[in-house]
Amino acid sequence: MIQSELNEMAGKIVMVKLRDGTTVRGVLKSFDQHMNLLLEDSEEIIDPKTSVKRGLVMIRGDTVLFVSPL
């Protein structure tokens, strides 16, 4: 079920919340069975008005709390 939902989000902008409280927004390029995520054109959201460009990032699945489409 999770894979089908992630498949629908592939190629679209998503927001990812991590266990350490970090929020990252970017284009979901790919993922695997462990929920490791590859995001392109990503940025770390510091607060609603501040973000830091991160570019291409790989996020380990065990650090992900949730993935949400935007």
Compile the SSE list and pairings.
Blueprint: H1 2-9, E1 13-18, E2 23-31, E3 37-47, E4 50-59, E5 64-69
Antiparallel strand pairs: 1-2, 1-5, 2-3, 3-4
Task: Explain how this protein is built.
By secondary structure, the protein is mostly beta strands. The protein has one helix and five strands. The protein has a five-stranded antiparallel beta sheet, with no helix packed on it. The longest helix has 8 residues, at 2-9. The protein starts with a helix and ends with a strand. The mean pLDDT is 96.
Radius of gyration: 11 Å
What shape does the CA trace take? globular
Counting helices, strands and paired strands, the structural category is mainly beta
Give the fraction of residues assigned to helices.
10-25%
Helix count from the secondary structure assignment = 1
Largest sheet: 5 strands, antiparallel
Distance between the first and last residues' Cα: 19 Å
